[in-house]
């Protein structure tokens, strides 16, 4: 019978796999959980260097989509896991997890790590009470990327520090829908790290805030209404079709294809809009994130960082790895393999004093200036009880902001008005904050 | 026909299956039940074992609950209608003597082997995407504006993806049923000059009713827990949040295990109500 | 078949059936084609069909970035393992329910099916805690057991409906000949039940292969199967259609090929009692 042979075959395969699984020798194996983005992929391709220097450490990668990764990590750590030795987390998680005692302090990194070289704002965001809980792998603010050729054709000139009004006008002038050119590209996809990163940072520049000093949700404020209405109107005038599904990756693709006039997003996108994949690499200009003259710009501050959970059994090996991946020599390693432009940006001051890098990276000056103006401890025009520019550093924020983001995304898709979206956002935020005991 | 001896043997043979399923059901379910009365928020390090029915009250009173139930019902009904109507038509078509029947059958059942994550990713990016998706090229080719399926017709888009995956299953089961149809009976009716439509209405459809109930039952079990397709395409935005997805948001996104567990218990109860209802019908069918 | 069919009619039905078949298959075909394109050809406007420079670079890129052989092995072990374990437990249960039905048999069967209604995410935390406690997180054995349990009701149900179609007279005849329970199962029932078991095995391998909730949340490295492999390709930066297609093909090709080769066996027992 044909089937029996097929089954036998499958069983044989299974047995083979089971016996083949015991390969590695005595080396320590560390498991690294990471997200699937450009700089991380570069790191994986450079592992040869690490293996050469540390033959006694085996490195296993778990690469997942950002949200899946975060949930996997949270579940693992909060149930006392121990599955991972190095975690890739951001400036939102580090203070919270550090406070919970889930992360190992990195204050004892060796002197050659040159911890004082880290950009102060980033280092501050990754520390709790003077203890550094994570090492930044790359840092970013957000800024304005634009097409110089389209600006010229529209007869406009981008100032170094534009206002939102100007961005909106310039976007409208560049839009040419018949030729698939959208004046403005911006995140619309629902998620606390997607559209809410943009909108929260943007709202700061419009004088809005998430909570007042009594932790009362503020979506019923006029400033939020201005923010959301401005965003929706601008996107309707000049944004791409299907903007409500576009996150960072989708917008990057659009920009690389030459379908965007202006794109306001992470400074770390700089290297990707000028690399070989980009069809418009020669025509990209950079400016600061826009403002409205209230004293705050719409730029955020973020760093993807490597941290070690206290549940890890291999903390020393994990530290060795972090020292390699975020240490001062790593930049040169990337530069040699991929060119200076591909070096992970935004973590070390010395990189922005390096002429090789400054020459190769046209976005470097704007990046460092943007990062300098973002202030997580004082993010808004009016005072707030929280820290964080494009997030609120409380554990409940991710859940709330994702749901708020869904309200705003559906407003962008035209399924509800800005007022309805804000009313729903206010209601659900009040509800969630009540559940959280505020 | 069964002897006392074989009866006791039978009991022993069924024991392992009942035992493992009982353990599987009771242990996690009891833990979930326990958590559902607790204030359990790992990110805050909060664990208070008894807060009464607070979680249930909160879960029921949030406006998300009713809309999630509605979305779930819409989604399941939509997918069931497409797969059953399409399945019947496809089964009748495949029952005809055609050239290359084997190959056509291979083509038709292929989607059933595709993992949900892959099919959701493929549909989302390569078909529905408004800038680079095939549908947009098609629309542009026909001189129309590209349509943004995922935000303008999100529920429909997900229904299409899932129905694509389950249509082969329905087709296969219905095809077996069609093939078992007594051809003499059909011929007799053909001789009587009964038109094709009434032949379908009075002979084929009644014959298929049992197969249709089976398809509904099995598919509903799987469809109530659709997850990957929503997660990949809309992430629950644009009113595509089903009950399963709502529970997921509570447990994993908000990290409120107590509230999520209460939602989980509610979902179990609702699913079982549907199950009992469905199984009554199928159970009756099995007796005949 | 005595129905008279003209060639013209046959042609018409053939065209219609092929059109439907190709429509159903198209998404897979398109993914297959895209996986051999460069990233810029993949999103070319208008779409390119067959005439482009076929390249394997996407497969190489995917291969470099992940451990495909390991994920494939894990998928095979987990799906085959959980199915074998499930069959071992389900065959006796289904046999006794079909041939020695008691008063409660139907209730037991329906209860089993109702355990499948448990929404996975609702029991996630308990299960993770249990797995941690038993020290089996990220192990193949955990996934084999979990997937066996979630599919067991379907296995029992499918076998039961298949066994019920085996005529009871055969059993009685064999008993008259003095066969005991063991030889009755071994020599009379098993040969008759084999097609049903085969089709159950196939269906469950497919279901286990494609399960994408537990397999992602309960694994990290050692037991991560192809579902986790594809999850790592779901949102990379920039142009990625071709690479996504290549990764997708790598994830579905094994089960697709197995399914095609065994589709006759699969179909034969896939009735769930739908036919009487």
Automatic annotation (TrEMBL), chain A:
Keywords: Signal. The keyword Signal applies. The keyword RNA-binding does not apply. Residues 1-23 form the signal peptide. GO terms for cellular component: periplasmic space. Pfam families: SBP_bac_1 (PF01547). CDD domains: PBP2_TMBP_like. It comes from the Bacteria. InterPro entries: Bact_solute-bd_prot1, SBP. Gene3D superfamilies: Periplasmic binding protein-like II. It is found in: Periplasm. Belongs to the bacterial solute-binding protein 1 family. PANTHER family: ARABINOSE-BINDING PROTEIN-RELATED (PTHR43649), DIACETYLCHITOBIOSE BINDING PROTEIN DASA (PTHR43649:SF12). This is Putative ABC transporter-binding protein. It comes from Flavimaricola marinus. The lineage of its organism: Bacteria, Pseudomonadati, Pseudomonadota, Alphaproteobacteria, Rhodobacterales.
UniProtKB/TrEMBL annotation, chain B:
It is found in: Cell membrane. It is a multi-pass membrane protein. Pfam families: BPD_transp_1. GO terms for biological process: transmembrane transport. One of its GO terms (cellular component) is plasma membrane. The chain crosses the membrane at residues 12-37, 73-94, 106-123, 155-178, 211-238, 258-282. Its main location: membrane. The keyword Cell membrane applies. Keywords: Cell membrane, Membrane, Transmembrane, Transmembrane helix, Transport. Residues 69-278 form the ABC transmembrane type-1 domain. Belongs to the binding-protein-dependent transport system permease family. This is Trehalose transport system permease protein SugA. It comes from Flavimaricola marinus. The lineage of its organism: Bacteria, Pseudomonadati, Pseudomonadota, Alphaproteobacteria, Rhodobacterales.
From TrEMBL, chain C:
Residues 72-262 form the ABC transmembrane type-1 domain. One of its GO terms (biological process) is transmembrane transport. It is a multi-pass membrane protein. It holds the Pfam family BPD_transp_1. The keyword Transmembrane helix applies. Keywords: Cell membrane, Membrane, Transmembrane, Transmembrane helix, Transport. The chain crosses the membrane at residues 12-33, 76-96, 108-129, 141-163, 184-206, 212-233, 240-261. It is found in: Cell membrane. GO terms for cellular component: plasma membrane. CDD domains: TM_PBP2. PROSITE patterns: ABC_TM1 (PS50928). Belongs to the binding-protein-dependent transport system permease family. This is Trehalose transport system permease protein SugB. It comes from Flavimaricola marinus.
């Amino acid at each position: 019978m044909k089937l029996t042979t097929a089954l036998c075959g499958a069983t044989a395969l299974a047995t083979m796999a089971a016996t083949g699984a015991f390969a590695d020798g005595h080396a320590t194996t560390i498991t690294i959980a990471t997200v699937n983005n450009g700089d991380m992929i570069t790191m994986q391709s450079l592992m040869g260097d690490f293996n050469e220097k540390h033959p006694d450490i085996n490195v296993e990668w778990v690469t997942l989509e950002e949200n899946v990764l975060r949930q996997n990590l949270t579940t693992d750590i909060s149930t006392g896991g121990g599955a991972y030795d190095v975690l890739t987390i951001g400036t939102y998680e580090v203070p919270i997890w550090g406070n919970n005692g889930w992360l190992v302090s990195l204050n004892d990194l060796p002197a050659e790590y040159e911890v004082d070289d880290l950009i102060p704002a980033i280092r501050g965001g990754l520390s709790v009470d003077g203890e550094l809980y994570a090492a930044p792998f790359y840092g970013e603010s957000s800024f304005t990327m634009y097409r110089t050729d389209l600006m010229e054709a529209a007869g406009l000139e981008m100032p170094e520090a534009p206002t939102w009004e100007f961005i909106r006008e310039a976007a409208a002038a560049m839009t040419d829908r018949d030729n698939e050119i959208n004046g403005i590209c911006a995140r619309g996809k629902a998620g606390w790290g997607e559209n809410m990163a943009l909108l929260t940072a943007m709202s700061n520049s419009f004088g809005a805030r998430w909570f007042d000093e009594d932790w009362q949700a503020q979506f019923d404020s006029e400033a939020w209404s201005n923010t959301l209405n401005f965003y929706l109107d601008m996107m309707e005038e000049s944004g791409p079709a299907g903007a409500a599904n576009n996150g960072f990756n989708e917008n990057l693709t659009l920009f690389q294809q030459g379908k965007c006039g202006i794109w306001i997003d992470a400074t770390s996108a700089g290297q990707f809009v000028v690399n070989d994949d980009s069809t418009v690499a020669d025509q990209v200009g950079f400016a600061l994130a826009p403002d409205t003259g209230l004293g705050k710009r719409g730029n955020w501050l973020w760093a993807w960082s490597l941290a070690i959970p206290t549940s890890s059994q291999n903390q020393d090996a994990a530290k060795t790895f972090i020292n390699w991946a975020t240490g001062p020599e790593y930049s040169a390693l990337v530069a040699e393999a991929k060119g200076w432009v591909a070096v992970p940006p935004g973590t070390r001051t010395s990189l922005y004093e390096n002429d090789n890098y400054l020459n190769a990276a046209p976005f470097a000056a704007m990046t460092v200036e943007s990062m300098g103006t973002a202030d997580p401890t004082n993010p808004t025009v009016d005072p707030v009880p929280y820290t964080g520019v494009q997030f609120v550093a409380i554990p409940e924020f991710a859940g709330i902001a994702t749901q708020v983001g869904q309200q705003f995304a559906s407003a962008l898709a035209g399924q509800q008005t800005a007022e309805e979206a804000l009313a729903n956002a206010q209601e659900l935020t009040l509800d969630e904050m009540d559940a959280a005991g505020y | 026909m069964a002897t006392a001896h074989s009866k006791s043997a039978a009991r022993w043979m069924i024991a392992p299956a009942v035992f493992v399923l009982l353990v599987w059901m009771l242990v996690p379910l009891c833990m979930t039940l326990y958590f559902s009365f607790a204030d359990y928020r790992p990110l805050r390090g909060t664990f208070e074992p008894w807060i009464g029915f607070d979680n249930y009250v909160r879960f029921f009173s949030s406006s998300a609950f009713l809309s999630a139930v509605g979305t779930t019902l819409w989604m399941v009904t939509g997918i069931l209608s497409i797969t059953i109507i399409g399945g019947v038509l496809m089964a009748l078509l495949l029952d005809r003597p055609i050239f290359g029947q084997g190959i056509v059958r291979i083509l038709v059942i292929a989607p059933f082997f595709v993992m949900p994550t892959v099919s959701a990713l493929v549909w989302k990016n390569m078909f529905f995407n408004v800038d680079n998706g095939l549908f947009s090229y098609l629309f542009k080719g026909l001189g129309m504006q590209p349509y943004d399926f995922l935000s303008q017709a999100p529920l429909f888009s997900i229904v299409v993806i899932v129905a694509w995956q389950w249509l082969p299953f329905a087709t296969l089961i219905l095809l077996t049923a069609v093939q078992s149809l007594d051809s003499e009976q059909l011929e007799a009716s053909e001789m009587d000059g009964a038109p094709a439509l009434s032949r379908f209405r009075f002979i084929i459809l009644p014959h298929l009713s049992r197969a249709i109930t089976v398809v509904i039952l099995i598919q509903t079990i799987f469809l109530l827990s659709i997850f990957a397709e929503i997660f990949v395409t809309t992430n629950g935005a644009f009113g595509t949040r089903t009950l399963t997805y709502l529970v997921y948001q509570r447990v994993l996104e908000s990290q409120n295990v107590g509230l999520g567990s209460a939602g989980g218990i509610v979902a179990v109860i609702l699913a079982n109500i549907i199950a009992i209802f469905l199984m009554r019908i199928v159970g009756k069918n099995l007796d005949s | 078949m005595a129905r008279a069919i003209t060639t013209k009619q046959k042609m018409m039905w053939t065209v219609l059936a092929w059109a439907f078949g190709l429509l159903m298959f198209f998404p897979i075909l398109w993914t297959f084609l895209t996986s051999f394109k460069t990233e810029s050809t993949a999103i070319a406007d208008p779409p390119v069909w067959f005439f482009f420079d076929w390249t394997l670079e996407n497969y190489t890129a995917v291969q470099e970035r992940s451990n495909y052989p390991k994920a494939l092995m894990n998928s095979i072990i987990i799906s085959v393992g959980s199915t074998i374990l499930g069959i071992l437990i389900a065959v006796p249960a289904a046999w006794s329910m079909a041939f020695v039905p008691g008063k409660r048999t139907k209730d037991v069967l329906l209860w089993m099916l109702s355990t499948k209604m448990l929404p996975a995410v609702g029991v996630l935390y308990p299960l993770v805690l249990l797995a941690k406690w038993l020290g089996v997180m990220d192990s193949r054995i955990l996934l084999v057991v979990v997937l066996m349990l979630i599919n067991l009701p379907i296995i029992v149900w499918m076998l039961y409906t298949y066994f019920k179609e085996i005529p009871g007279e055969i059993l009685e005849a064999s008993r008259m000949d003095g066969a005991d329970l063991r030889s009755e199962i071994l020599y009379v029932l098993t040969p008759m039940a084999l097609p049903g078991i085969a089709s159950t095995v196939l269906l469950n391998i497919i279901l286990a292969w494609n399960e994408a909730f537990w397999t992602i949340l309960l694994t990290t490295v050692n037991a991560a199967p192809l579902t986790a492999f594809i999850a790592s390709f779901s949102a990379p930066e920039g142009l990625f259609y071709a690479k996504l297609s290549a990764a997708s093909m790598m994830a579905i090709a094994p089960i697709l090929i197995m399914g095609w080769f065994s589709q006759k066996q699969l179909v034969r027992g896939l009735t769930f009692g739908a036919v009487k």
